[in-house]
Amino acid sequence: QVQLVESGGGLVESGMSLTLSCAASGRTFSPYNMAWFRQAQGKEREFVAGLWWSSGTTHYARSVKSRFTISRDTAKNTIYLQMNSLKPEDTAVYYCAAQTGIGAYDLWGQGTQVTVSS
Fold first, then answer.
1. Residues 71, 49: contact at Cβ < 8 Å?
2. d(Cα 67, Cα 96) in Å, to the nearest integer?
3. Which of 52, 38, 14, 19 minimizes the C-alpha distance to 92?
4. pLDDT (tens digit, 9 = 90+) per residue, 5-59?
């Protein structure tokens, strides 16, 4: 059974940077797509950034484009989210997710808290 484990969250000041990691453990892992989502307190979960595993093609939510970068290391079955110029409104629990087949994202990590102070 494949599991996704996030790490790298924490408390930072506005304008600083943080990098999240999401490692897939278990058997051979080859998803269609992987992504980062986030959920702020009292709000719905929203898409942040995603990439196609085979090609590495990336896509971003408008709110984070030019500040966040998603990348992957296929040898380590790991994706990253480099977050620069963080803002208080980026405060949320960040989740990584994988689309292992045709359909919705069906594999989720446990989440990691990111808090940006003003």
1. no
2. 18
3. 38
4. 999 999 999 999 999 999 998 777 889 999 999 999 999 999 999 999 999 999 9
**Both tokens assigned to 35:** 């992504």
Q: Confirm if 98 and 105 have CB atoms less than 8 A apart.
A: yes
What would the 3-class secondary structure string for the chain be?
Answer: CCEEEEECCEEEECCCCEEEEEEEECCCCCCCEEEEEEECCCCCCEEEEEEECCCCCEEECCCCCCCEEEEEECCCCEEEEEECCCCHHHCEEEEEEEECCCCCCCEECCCEEEEEEC
pLDDT for res 101: 86
On whether the CB atoms of residues 107 and 1 are closer than 8 A, the answer is: no
